[in-house]
Please model this.
Amino acid sequence: MEMLAFYYFLAFFLAFFLLSKRLFPKRKNLPPSGPLSLPIIGHLYLFKKPLHHTLARISSQYGPILLLKFGSRRVLHVSSPSVAEECFTTNDIVFANRPHFLLGKYLGFDNTVLAFASYGQHWRNLRRLTTHEIFSSTRLHMFSKIRTNEVHSLLQRLLGNSSKTVEMKSMFFDLTLNNMMMMITGKRYYGDNVGVLDKAKQFQELVEDMFGAGGASNIEDFFPLLKWVGFNGLEKKMVRLQRKRDQFMQELIEEHRMVRSQSKDEKSLIDVLLSLQEGDPKYYTDEIIIGIIQVLLTAGTNTTVVTMEWAMSLLLNNPEVLKKAQAEIDTIVGQDRLLNESDVAHLPYLHCIINETLRLYPAGPLLVPHESSEECTVGGFTIPRGTMLLVNQWAIQKDPKLWEEPTKFIPERMESTGGVREGYKFMPFGSGRRSCPGEGLAMRVVGLTLGSLIQCFEWERDDEELIDMTEGTGLTLPKAKPLVAKCKPRPAMLSFLSQL
Ligand code: HEM
Ligand SMILES: *[C@@H]1O[C@H](CO)[C@@H](O)[C@H](O)[C@H]1NC(C)=O
Ligand SMILES: *[C@@H]1O[C@H](CO)[C@@H](O)[C@H](O)[C@H]1NC(C)=O
Ligand SMILES: *[C@@H]1O[C@H](CO)[C@@H](O)[C@H](O)[C@H]1NC(C)=O
Ligand SMILES: *[C@@H]1O[C@H](CO)[C@@H](O)[C@H](O)[C@H]1NC(C)=O
Model:
């Protein structure tokens, strides 16, 4: 009898012990959670677009390291260089994951696509493949003729419109997209054969439709339960758009499969990838090739376009900077030939202008979201596994504690900082193993384009008023009002321009 009582007692004690562990888990030292978090929606009620503005405001009030809730997602928001450094050095591997979004799945932002692949063997393979076969300096060098041709075609268009008001964004867009399509397909399509550029534009429109259908942040991402209910019938529409997109890509691949370019210098990226496929058809599937084309078109186009548009806008509002850049080019390149890509490396002030533009208008204001794959420590706080990381680079790069007159466009400040990556206060391309692999390509395109525009033309605003620098809403920090400007050829450059 006594024995039985003892067993009852033991069972009761055990049950209590287990239950209390569930009910009262050991309190972890979590980061502060900022403003009031409501049940279910968390902090989502606070958000207005653009998100990086809202988050910057919250962090200036509540601190540089916050653990927020977007619905049921835990989000670590970071807005100080030292905390960012901790995330991308000590904890770089832990944060090398990407969160998965429903919309991402349909955009192809999933495992087959480098930018959104989970951290692991597959991502490493993709990253290695693109580093060697696409972004290596040998390969980039091979494609330099394509970039030169594109820039010359832009100069021609501007010459044909001299002293007229021109809208710059669409010109930059055509240049960038054409450059990308020519790298991918290896053919020159402008002039009388514009088929592929049209196709690429259709692709861009498709992406737009997808964003339109889902909204850039989809409510089902934050309330996973809704996924089961099939709440807003998004899936069907997405699947349809996805099919259209894959068909576009597949057609490009089939075209190349039929006619393979044998010449070594003329090899397009698709040719390169198809050669790899012959060697290892199991790994280099069409799906992988489609994923790579897609990441080039989505991650590489608009980022480059907006950077050039912001840079020209800043130059038009700061004519003394424009004059100084022109003087640098006149001294180093001269006016008896067109500037080329090897000149760009010798134009430090032009680089300062590009960096200062990327400081004020980083095309990835919150970088790309990361996710922790295990528990870790940041700033002395415990960060649970599965937390989404947003590094507010936009806020860091405008922080008055780190930068003098932070909102002013002063390219000279970049001279003194040199390799400004120190301190993590300037990293428009991110940092660590998930940082942007397209930096070299982007800097070449932006450098050559801006340099050529400055060398060949005199620029002025459309009217007396300053260019409106308001940010629009969109994933890659677009300008709210597209830039319009007027230019006329510089007399000394006219003969070179008219020969193009
Ligand atoms: C001025 C232009 C550009 C800017 C400002 C920019 C910025 C960024 C940023 C901030 C990230 C995220 C880093 C992180 O997650 O911490 C990123 C990732 C990425 N970018 Fe860029 N980028 C630019 C141009 C390009 C170009 C031209 C390409 C390709 C053609 C490209 C391809 C990628 C890819 C593939 C990733 C994902 C890497 C990964 O997840 O492993 N980017 N970029
Ligand atoms: C002027 O610009 C427009 C639009 O960008 C372009 O289509 C047209 O070809 C240009 N005109 C000339 C003569 O180059
Ligand atoms: C790029 O920007 C244009 C607007 O200029 C937009 O229509 C398009 O959807 C964007 N594409 C991507 C992939 O974000
Ligand atoms: C650029 O021009 C210089 C001077 O004419 C020349 O030496 C150099 O090879 C050119 N570079 C390219 C990439 O065309
Ligand atoms: C511009 O920024 C890059 C980092 O993105 C850095 O490597 C480079 O040294 C900077 N150049 C200048 C002139 O500030």
